[in-house]
Amino acid sequence: MTAYALQHDLNAAPERQIAWITSRDPVPYGEAIATMDARASAIFDGFACECVWLLAHPCVYTAGTSAKPADLVDPARFPVIPAGRGGGYTYHGPGQRVAYVMLDLSRRGRDVRGFVRALEDWLIATLARLGVEGERRPGAVGIFVGGTKIASIGVRVRRWVTLHGVSLNVNPELAHFSGIVPCGLKDTPVTSLAALGVECDMDEVDRALRASFAVTFDDGLRNASR
Predict the structure, then answer these.
(1) What percent of the chain has pLDDT above 90?
(2) Does residue 183 have an active-site annotation?
(3) Secondary structure (DSSP) of the chain
(4) Which domains does the chain have, with CATH numbers?
């Protein structure tokens, strides 16, 4: 999926439908950010509809705007890239489903906190469809199962169009999280669906994400896979 494709494929008047795009192969982080930025600009300019992009990245550590140098434990393990989103350090890699959510909040109440809460609701509802009880934790962003973290949330809003989104651990190599303090939570282990004994593939996760999104955000959805 190239930057041009995400910006211009599925181009449409800014109708109340949402384009769903799935990249089957891992997308390098820098390319993904450029692609997402281009699509968000097209949404703001009225040249493209809102979009949810499902993808994975090659192994990378990303640094949010609140990342602390001490939380980068092993900087030589993987590339470390500034993300431009809120939050601290996080890991992305194969086996993790990343969902970049590009919505026009000027149509949705311009409520950033409400948007983040809706992302949390979306993840909790998705996990419920997969047989897992997810929960919020006071003072922390993300979704937890018991004493472990299974999903992260990091967003940016530019001209009231949202960027970045969520990441859900399906079956990543959890040892890779040890090179950082994930999201600055020193005493919180990271888990995954696989580690919890949930047997599902990425297609099942994607179906759960889409079905839950339709309830949480909007019923008007379109889909395209790449």
Answers:
(1) 77
(2) yes
(3) --HHHHHHTT---S-S-EEEEE-SS---HHHHHHHHHHHHHHHHTTSS-EEEEEE--SSEEEE-TT--GGGBS-TTTS-EEE--SSSSEEEE-TTEEEEEEE-BGGGTTS-HHHHHHHHHHHHHHHHHHTT---EEETTEEEEEETTEEEEEEEEEEETTEEEEEEEEESS--GGGGGGB-GGG-TT--B--TTTTT----HHHHHHHHHHHHHHHT-S-EEEEE-
(4) 3-225 (3.30.930.10)
